[in-house]
Amino acid sequence: CDYCPLSCIAVWKDLEELLLSGNKLQHLPDNIIHLRHLRVLRVHSNRLQSSPCFAKMASLKVLDLAHNRLDRINLATLVPQQLQFLDLSCNSRLYVDPRQFQVYR
């Protein structure tokens, strides 16, 4: 399976930690942002080429997107203000405009 079915997200509405690493996922469903209690999301070592907008996920503290196939991201839409840990390492095609980091100084 190369995706997480949309229907599975509604069942997990109170989930606090979701580990989907090493599953060859190519996409995450956009409605993953409705997991309001999610604090930890680890999806490293997949085949993700893009990422949903996590910026409005108020509880998210840890976001691990390492070892995927991401090529461009917008930190303003990806990163919630309260995020404490972000791993984007080993996305060999990833480009982040350095000016995006000025907000986080």
Automatic annotation (TrEMBL):
PROSITE patterns per the UniProt record, alphabetical: LRR
The entry's keywords: Leucine-rich repeat, Repeat
The keyword Repeat appears for this protein: yes
Xref: InterPro entries: Leu-rich_rpt, Leu-rich_rpt_typical-subtyp, LRR_dom_sf, LRR_domain-containing
Assigned GO CC terms: cytoplasm
Pfam family, any one: LRR_1
Top-level division of the source organism's lineage: Eukaryota
Identification of the protein by name: Uncharacterized protein
Species: Timema poppense
